Model the fold of this input.
Amino acid sequence: MIQRFSLLFVLLLSCAIAFCQIPLDQFKITSSYTSFPDTGRANGHLYQNVLYDAGNHYSDSSVIIITRKNFVPKKKVDMIFWFHGWNNNIDTALIEYGLSRQFAEANVNAVLVLAETAKNSPDSYGGKLEQKKYLS
Done:
């Protein structure tokens, strides 16, 4: 009985480990082409009598870029951009919505890009992405 239980446990553990191993390459960069920092929120943003300061909420220029390990740059490449919603950020959105898992399961030759926007604040302002001088 103990041997059967041990074998079953090892099999279940192996399946769980295999399921959790997502064949992805992921890295984080900063880019001056993202939403922030931006002059439109240089003094922060007041929402429902709460000030969301620029330093904590409107200065992060991080970008997470994800590809599958079997990504082939010489083939057609799809670009997928994810912009998180209010009171969130790219790190927590990646986990909360299972974006890595969904991307891995899609099995597409693509690049998933998550650019930081208003970080952990109730705000839809797109920063530089809304300014005409950056759109050309």
About this structure: The chain has five helices and six strands.
